[in-house]
Every structure is written in structure tokens, then in C-alpha cells.
Amino acid sequence: MLIIKTKLFPPANRTGVIKRPGLSKLLHPTGVKKLVLVHAPAGYGKTTLLDQWHKALIDDGRTACWLSLDELDDDPATFIRYLLCAFQEVVENFWMDAANWMEGRLQPDITIALNHIINELIRIDIPVTLFIDDYQHINSIEIHQFIERLIDWSPENFLLVIGSRIVPPLSLSKWRVSEKMTEVDVSMLRFSNLEGKAFLEHKHNLQLTSEQIAIITEKSEGWAAGLQLVALVLKNYDQRDEFIASFSGNLYEIADYLTNNVLTQQTRTLTDFLLKTSILSRFNADICNLLTGRDDAQSVLEQLENDGLFTLPLDTHGHWYRYHHLFHDFLIGRLRRQYPHEVLNLYRTAAGWFRSQGLIKEAVDYALHSNDLEIIEDIHRDAIAIMSLMGTTAQVYTWLSNIPDSVKQRFPRLLILEGFALCLMNRVQDAETINTRLEQALAGLAGDSADTDPEEVKSLETEAVVVPASIAAMKDDSTRLLALTGQLEDKPVDNLMIATLNDLRGYAQLRKGRFEDSKALLARAWQYFSINNQCYGMAVVDGFAGIADIQQLHYQEAYRVFARSEEAAKDVTSGNIFAHALASAMRATICYEWNRIDEAQKLLNSNLQLIEEIGPPIFSCYGYVTLSRCYSAKGDWDAAINALNRCLFRARQCVSSLFPAWVERERLLLAGKMRAGGAAYPDLTSPASSPASTIPDTWDIGDYFGQSNQVRLCILDNKIDGLRDRVVSLRRYAERYAASQAVLDCLLLEAQVLKMSDDHARAAGIIQQAVRLAEPAGLLRTFADEGELLSDLLEDCLTDPSYTTRTKAYIEKILDAYSLKGSSYTITGHTALHRENRTVNVEALSKRELEVLQLVSAGKTNTEIAEQLFIAKATVKFHIGNIFSKLHATNRTLAVATARNSGLIR
After folding, report:
1. Dist CA 98 CA 544 (whole Å)
2. Using CA atoms, how far apart are residues 367 and 346, in angstroms rounded to an integer?
3. pLDDT tens-digit readout, 800-819
4. Helix, strand, coil shares, percent, the chain, to 5
5. pTM for the full model?
6. Which helix (H) or strand (E) holds 38?
7. How many of the other CB atoms lie within 10 Å of CB of 458?
């Protein structure tokens, strides 16, 4: 988002101001004040007064920052960005990471921003005064709540000063009662006779009698803008008594006087200049020259400013200007009456100029005023490319929402863009509504064959598929997605929408296990995004390609792809923050697998919120599953469960079975770890665990998880009869589609089943296959997360002469992954013990200890054991501690395995 720096400084005033010491005294509050509120209608000198105070603070060496608001700032994200810029303009190193945190956010949590701001104010520990002018533009409840909390929670070194035309809807009464607020209203801002005299005589060099000044001040009610208008009239008015007697503070009467006594006093060419430039909310010499056909606009603007003709500079360099709001309204009303046929053309010209300067928002606004529909469509063709950076998705949608529906129906490409933006913002239901309107618009174009180019209609129909296709992707409906995108084979990838369709179809092919077809489509999309430097498109493509690599156990390639995307989007200030977040979060999945858990967790905590805001749910779900694994590896069970719940929430709109089955798989793995650590674990008989019927004809990882979950549940329940045949059948299913990650998963399940069946020889053979399959990818956590039934089998591998030195070193790394510091299921000491001596001497267990151990082997919790044996829970813990000590075990799984190997239990 481009920041307009002039909003961070008081409006420049080079003509001098009238000092108002009485008010200035009010603005230096005594005691602990949190808020100074200055409110009055337009033209009462609020900004001038605040500017004087601001300058006085700066001259005294105090820290004061400024923010001028307009109607575009009534958005929490925009408001917070400008507020941070205001602080950073005057406070060195104020929240240094704010740009990375805020840049491109669609729906930022402004409470988090508030916490950072307050902490920074406490840190700097110097008096800071923040001026916010023109607060009347704010209607957002979120922003009002933010301001209230800022006032309530800020430290004593902070003072907020608000200028507004209206009394803002804040909880003012509590600050009034507690005397933490100074209020300056219209009665205090009105010019007194003495101030009016100083204003008219010293600023405008008018020699008036005391009676004349008193009448003017009374009739204008001390209104500074009214006094300014009167002064301009009186400079060229000979019959002053007549004018002063008839003068009224009514705005309409002032407009009449402006017409007859100000505008008519100007030259015809200057009047023409004023009227033709009045359509602009801000202007510089270039746009003024274009609208008026002149070449001396800069000197005209400087003269207008010097003459005080309601022309205000917006910067200190005299580049951008604006008219006083009231004068602007007066001029544009006169323009519409005097030159009604030129107004649309002026707006059209302004739209073209702002577009040429890359100021798309203003270009759209002027195009809407001109009713130039072709310009609007052309502008939004440009906006498509801009939006693809994803830092501006919300802005593009805001612009689109301001365009009349009738215009969007006439130009369906606008509806395509709107529907696509809504999908990216996860507003699927709204996107479906837009898609219905889009279908109607396309049908209308196709039926109007006389005025429509058939090739253009065909092109639009192809591009329009991106909306329902994006909806299908957000719902993870790969079957529909494939059906919608089947016509892409012969389409050149020459625009954003076609590239996106290739991208989405590539994901659908991936979900069906057609990995090579998927990668070919993704490569076509990536080439387009790369050539056009569209980082988010590249990140999504790389994300899908990396998932394919993970499922094929090409972990090094996946890591390279994710790192490439991170590098391409490293300049997050250029609108690539979402692309960078996506790539970083996906790289975290590889870091976790390679046992770099702290690194993975740091990446996820920094980026998960961002990738949840936009894009397909698969990425945020990968992130939350990996985050859950990080927590569970460290024994933080509650955090692990919460992360899985967040995964399900993110995928709540999806129609596929993938996410519920995936989360159920993680819950089952988590349950095994919790049971090994002696913790109670949640019920695992959810509907997601209901028996699957038959293995499907096509690959679907969601179906695979659903079936493999049944195997895991049976392992947890020690129900292993006939289980190996089910695992072998599942493995053959995965092998048929070259889904190597699932093949490895099945091998580890099969090894556990054989181990539990005391078939050690075959279990060793299976684990040998698993090690050889996983070694090229360097997988570690895949083994460790399965629990410790595999650890003995891996220990046996170290004594097997058929293994190479390199493979044994790899197995050592796997066993080290079991010993993660901080894990509640660590086997620290166990590995070393077994490497030194495979025979463990166990001390005899008491009868009660054997009873407890037998129930532990059956999967009972401490509470269940206590109830069954009619003993206290603390007593159960005491016996388990003795069992661990006698069996040289550090957890339940190891204790049970040692007891079985020693013949203590069956």
C-alpha cells in the first residue's frame, strides 16, 4: 500500500495565522490527561489551532506526530498503517517489525497492533503527543474501539489529540468524570471581537471600525471560514457598510456573495482555471495544465496560495494542492451550472491522467464520475495484474464493490475479477452469488450477437471458469474442479485467469494421484507467473508442486521449491507478504520432518495467520497439522489439539473427506504419544473412524487416511487379529499410484502389527524396507511420531551386517529424534542402554505392580486403573514410578515392551 506522506504532517500554511493564547493555554492541560478533543463544524479553525500547538511542541523539543484522515481511511487496515507511519515518522525504531506484520493484510487483528503500540510507548518512555485531524471521516466501530482502548491502556507519557467536525461516538463521559479529558468545542473556537479584529486587520490588512468588526464577528458567529470569505469580498467592495449590514452567516448566502463578489473579481482565465480544476480532490500542475489547456499551472497555483484564495498546499514543496472544502463545493456547483456539457469530459480526462500515473484508485473514482464504462473495464484489466500480487486483493475488491451492478453486468470481466477476489479472501458464499450473476451476464452477451464479437465472448467464457473453479478449489472439490477445467489442453497460457486455471487443475490432478500430469500443468502456470513477476501465483504453484513431491518422498526437491518461492517474495514490502508466508509455512513441514522443530515452529507462528487469510485451505491445513506435531513433540498436548481444531475450522467449507480424516490421523498419533506419557487422551471413536467399505478405484489421500485410521485405532486398542492383511491391501493401493509417503506409512503400520504379534523376524524385514525407502529423503519424524514400538526394531538394524555404515548412521539420527529435549515421551538413555547391552536385567515386580503393568499394557489410563483396582490415583502413579525404575524404562510403551520381552506379562 502506497502511503501519502503529506497526511503525516499538518497542512502547510504560509500566509501566517492569528495567535490565540487563550485556546493555546487550554491545549496545555494540567494533571494526567489522556485525551484532548477539539470538535466544531467546518471552518472554525480546528486544524489551524492544532497546527499551532503541534509547532509549539516541536519548538520545545517535544515529540509530536500528526495524522490527517480522509474518507479512504475508514478501514481498520488502512487506519492502522497510517497510524504506525505517523509514530515512525517521529520516533526512531518504533515497532521495527510493523511493516512485515502489517503489509498487505486483508483483515488484520487491530487489537494485536494496539498491544504492540502500547508496548512501544512504554519502551520509549518519553512524552509523545499524537494529533489525529478530521476524525469525522471515521465510521468504523473497530477503529472507534481501538481509539478507546488506546486512550484507556496507554501509559502516562502519551496524549491523544483529536480534531473532528462532529463529536465522535466514543465513551467521553468516563473521561470527563475522571478529569482525564480536555474538550474544546465550537463555543471556544469562535473568534472573539479582538481575534476577529486581528484576523481582518493584520492578516487581510482591512481597516474597519470596531462596530463593523463587531457586526461581522457576530453575524459570522466567529466562524473563521466565514471571516475569510468576508475579508475577500471586502477587499474589493467599496460599499462596506451596505455589505456588512446585509452579510449573513448562512452558507447559501455566502455562496451568492462568492459568486458575485469573489469569483467575478477574478480574470476570466483564472475563473476558468478554478472551475475546471474543481472536479479534483487533489491536484498538481500537470493535471491542471491538462484540464485547462494551459502550461503555467504551477505559477497559478502558487499565486492562488499566496492570495489566500482557498488553495491549500498538501506538501512543503508546492507539488500537490487542494481547495478548501467549502470553496471546492461552491466551485463544482458553479461548474455544473455553467458548463454542464464539459463535466463528464473533465472527469474522463482526469481518469486517464491518474491511470497513466499508476494511481488506479483515483482513476477508477473519476471514471465512475464520467460514466466512461470502457475506461473502467480497461483500468480493471490493469488491476488484474496488480491484484495477482495479492497484497492488493482487498483494495481491488473495494473498488469493484463501488462500481454499479449495471456496469459490471455489461462488462463481465469485472465480475470475473470480483468473484476471483472473493475466493482468494475465503468468502466462498459471496463468490457463488457473483458467479450466478456472471453466468447471467455471459448469457446476455452470447444472446446479443449483433453487438458482440464472438471471439471475445468465447475468451470471456474461458476466463470466467476461474470463478467456479476457484470456488471448487476452496471447497477442495477436485472432481468438480477437473470437470470445469477439462478444456485447457489447447489454450495458450497468456493471461492471469488461464494461468490460474492451469494451477487449479494441477492441484486437482495431484489430489487424484496423477502426479506427473499435475506437475506438467503446474509448470505451465509457473512459467506465466514467473515471466510476469507475480510472486503469489508462483508461491501457490510451488506449494502444490511441493505437496506432490512430499507425497512422492522427494523431500529435498520440495524444500528447494519452497525456498525458491521464499527468495522470490523476500521483499514483502512490495506486496509479496502472502507469497512469502505461504512458502515459509510449507518449508516448515520439511524442517519438522528433518527434526528441526524449533525452526519449523518459528516459521509457522510467524506465517500461519497470513496464509489463513487468503488462498486454498490445503496450505493452512498443512501448517496447522505441522504446528500440532511441533507441540506434540514437546509434550504440549493442549496446544497440539487446539492446532488440529483450527485445521478443521479452516477447512469447514470443504466437501472432501481429506481434512477430517487427516485430523483424525493426527489425533490417533497424538493419542499414542499421550498414552505413552501417562496422560489422558480424548475419545477416538468419532464418525471419521467408521469402517471404510472398499478401497476406491482412484487415488485419494483422504480415503487412504480414512482406512489407515482404522488400522491405527486397532493398534491403539490392541486388536490386531487380521490387521496385517488390511495393511498390506492398503500398501498395494498406495503402490499402485506411486504415493510413496503412503507406502512408507503402511510399512510402519505393518511393522507395528507384526511386532505386537511377536513376529519379530518379519517385522525386522518390513522395517528394513521402510528404512531403505525413507533414507534418500532423510525422514526422521515419520518414524519417531509413530511411537516407540518401532524403536526396538530400529535398534536391531544397528546390529544387522546387511546395513551399510551410511544407513546405520541414518538410523542413529532417527533414534536421536526420539530423544527430543522437552518431549514427554522421550527415551533418553534407552537408546544408549540398548546399544551397550541388548539384555536388560529387570528387578522382580510385586504382585500389585504386575497388576498395574498388565492394565497399562491394555491401554488403561491412571484413572481407569485406579477405579478397576479400587486404589487411589496417586497410588497408581507410585506403582508406575516403581515399575519404570525396575524395568529401566522412561515411559509406558517401553515398560510394556521390556516386560513382554522378559516374560513378565503376556
Report:
1. 30
2. 10
3. 888 888 999 999 899 888 87
4. 65, 5, 30
5. 0.62
6. strand 35-39
7. 11
